[in-house]
Each structure stands twice: as C-alpha cells, then as structure tokens.
Amino acid sequence: MFVALVFTALVGYLLGSLPFGYLIARAKGVNIFEVGSKNPGATNVRRVLGAGPGNLVFALDALKGSVAAAWALGALGSKMVVDLDAPLLNLLNRTYVGADWVNLGMAGLVGALLGHSFSCFTGFRGGKGVATAAGGCLVLMPIATLIGAAVWAVTFYSSRYVSLASILAALALPVSVFFLNQPLPLVIFAGIAALFVIIRHRTNITRLLNGTENRFVKKSAP
Description:
By secondary structure, this protein is mainly α. The chain has one domain. It is built from 11 helices and no strands. The chain starts with a helix and ends in a 12-residue tail after the last helix. The relative contact order is 0.13.
C-alpha cells in the first residue's frame, strides 16, 4: 500500500504541475508571472485577461485535482454499501470502495496541490491551490465541498474579496466534514488542506488586516 500511495502522489504531483494559467496567458502573449499579482491562478488570469480565460483556468485547475483524486478508482475492485457522502464517482457507480481508495485519493490530491503550488515546469512557482483543492475535494467529500462553495459565494458577493472568500471556504471544509460524521482521516485531511490554502494566502491575510487588499471589480466596458 505504501508503494501505491507514493506512486499515486507522484502522479498527482505531475498532474498538478501542469501550468494551465501560465500556458493560457502565454498563448495570448502574456507572461502571467510578470503582471497583476504575478500569480498563475484563475483570479489573476481573470483580472488580466478577462472572464473567459480566467474561467477556463479555474475549470482546468479544478480538473487536475479531480483526476488526481479519482484516477485510482478503476484500479480497485472492492464494492461496499453506498455512503451518503461517499466519493462522487462512487455514488455515480453505486459503489463505495472503502478506505483504500480514500487513502489513495487523498495521496493523489496532496500531490496535485504540491504540484500546482510548486510546479516543476515553471521553476517551482505556482498558484494558491484553491481550484485544485476544490476539484479534488468534490470527488472525496462532495457535500462538504458544496457547503464550502456556498460559503465562498456568499463571502465573495458580499465583500468582493476573492482571498477572503477562499480562506473562509477552506475553513468551512473541515468543519462540514466533521459535522457530517465523516471518517477521521477525511476530517484530518480536510483540516490539512484548509491549512495549506490559508498558508498560501498569508500575504493576502496581511493585506486584509491592513485594509490594502484589492477587491475584485469588473472591468468597465470600453
């Protein structure tokens, strides 16, 4: 099992390292590491290039996390009773493969988060991991992730701070997993994932406390 966990994490790292934000911006003649917040995540791409490219980057980054958490599903054959908050793909297949798959899914998502944040293709630079974490957590803990998404939406549309919305959504994840009575490993994992996202937003937290964080505003039409 240890070898399987390491291999899954390595595959997740390579998936997470795919620098979609950098590639999409580069295709439009922009080096995303040199403009805006100099972050290759969806928020900065959206600010610099508009909603279309930004939404595409978010979707692709989320897909990285989903695939990293779910690809090992086909390698396991054990089937058990469907759980209310079982991994999303298992719900669709009416199966639940138990702790082994969940452990592999968590290992894959951890690798993807590290790859996204420290991509080997961009000199170990990367984004903050929100979209990638959301995609992977949607597979591992769909109900809790949807609760986190609702927290993000309410916070963002009331404050227009993407960073604050991301931080509160990250905090909502382990709380939701706990109150949904999910297995302890998932509760711990959700807490670690939330901590990772918050640490990646440490400069945003400083700006929020200082009142200098930028709100997200739509560009005026020409």
